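Worked example 4.2. Below are the chains of a multi-component assembly; read each line carefully before continuing.
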Amino acid sequence: MSSVSIERSLWVLFAAFMIAVPWLIPALINAFWVSVIAEILIWSLFAASVNLLFGYVGLLSFGQALYFGFGMYGVAIGIQDLGLSFWPAFGLGIVASMAMAFVTGIFAVRLTWHYFAIITVVFSLIFYFLALTNKWLTGGDDGINFTLPPTVNIGGFRLAFTDATFQYFFILVTVALCFWLMQRLIASPLGKAFLAIRDNDVRASLIGLNVYLLRLIAFVLAGFLAGVAGALFAFFGRYASATYMFYHVSGDAVVWAIVGGAGTLLGPLVGTTLFIIVREIVSTHWEHHSLIVGTVAILVVIFAPKGVVGLWNSWTARLDERRTASSGAAKLRTEP
Amino acid sequence: MDKLLLLAMNGLIWGLIIALIALGLAIIFGLLDIINLAHGDFFMVGTVLAWATLQTTGSFWLGFLVAPLIGFLLGALIQRVVIEPIHNVAALSIVATFGLSLILQESVRITYGPTPGRILPPIGSTIPLFGVDYEVYRLFAAAVAILAIAGFFVFLHHTKLGTWMRAVRHDPDTSVAMGIPARRVYVLTFAIGFALAAFGGVVAAPITTVDFRGGVDILPFCFMAVIIGGLGNLPGTAAAAILLAVIEGVIQSVADPTVARITSLVLMSAVLLLRPQGLFKGLTR
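Applying the procedure described above to all two chains together yields the following structure tokens:
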């Protein structure tokens, strides 16, 4: 079997599994794991926002929690204080994080590498402390709890997150849509320009790319992904809290993205899944699950420095090589 | 006015301790290109070792010897087991040291326990200063921190090992060609980095709390000192740490601590944007 057909069958299996989750998982384990999987989907979208910047543009952001937090608060404040319904609140969360990413990005993308990493942490810390002190607006550490309005309410027809199956599919479809958009983006000329900047920003500017503007666009798009994740997480948990803006949350996403495989579309999903599943399984049996999580992180970077997906890619590449070698005269690969 | 001087004094002392820790971070960062997310936990391990020494031997002073020594050995071990295999790749170092940070915090939580504790100042007496009874231990801590920082720079500039460290940082390939055992210098650097943070932990233990999360707040502060001081500029790093802490202390005399923290963060972003090469570029060699 060639790697392409292996990957295609894995995709079909994966898609079928994700659709079957609300019925399959309660039958096999229990209903709690459906919400764990929904949570994994949300966090992997958040890790994807780190991956878009680091894996495709070469900017390591340690402050993505800021935009996640704005997504959360956009939804919570929209519903609780402004009395918005579901969709406008969702929109407010996304617009708030993109606007924030735009404003901070104007300054942040002037810097690169270590400096960029530090200024993104500094920005996120500023707003973390602001959120902690301005309790009247944000609720500080305790956060804001709210009752969720229905998602669809046309005539007598209502769909709401109180229905666990609807909640799961809403999250699945939204996250899948974002990953699909990201794949389209990377395949587009804009995405190729991002890769050019990642590989060599001087050469990219010499062939006429506006490096500053392109980095800013990437930063706002990453803010969009983080904002959608934050908004979804607010709907999912029915609350928003300043704790999700702390730099630890950003750091988690960086680790998930790199462990899964930075610069690969599904790397963040794989890394996030690995860590959350390990955490959930071990924490029910053993209080000190952090020891296992820490060990896994170290082992992955030592034995799979390109991440889990990178390991898979080099394995399939070797498989194809062996196939072409064994089929006698190696066929020349021609560009279509 | 007294309040301002008092808080500036507290800031200065805290800044000297932070400078000590940040120097450890700066050599690891500068020489190994390792972004060490576990550095705050190295400090935290120092505070716990101070507590453990006090519990087992009854003497706080012994901690000044025990903590950096154990820190040094732990640092050497960690470099060999965790850091060396990732070949100084900065992105991987983030993940590896994140894992390390979790392991250190959890190990302390298991052994020391989850509740923060306090160590009473080993020098109980106070002197009148700026209108209050000021703890003598704080002044002593400042003196020890200054001595340790001075000692570190003497080591760096006037011993063979220190010269090797600077040489490997300057040009690893030529250093190896000249016969400097670069691999051992890497181990040494990481070990000294840990030892400095652990020493800072002992000095700070009677001033702050002993807690397995004690390193979380220290970490961004140390990174800011390293960046504002200028990457690779060690005197700059120390100066930036002191400056940051004093500024925060001064602002605290008119506003609450969170506002002070926000103001210093805003100042820091201004420095990063206007002088990304560090505040002190051009002032030192």
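Take a moment to check your reading of the output against the notes. Chain B has a mean pLDDT of 88. The domain at 2-112+121-274 of chain B is CATH 1.10.3470 (ABC transporter involved in vitamin B12 uptake, BtuC).
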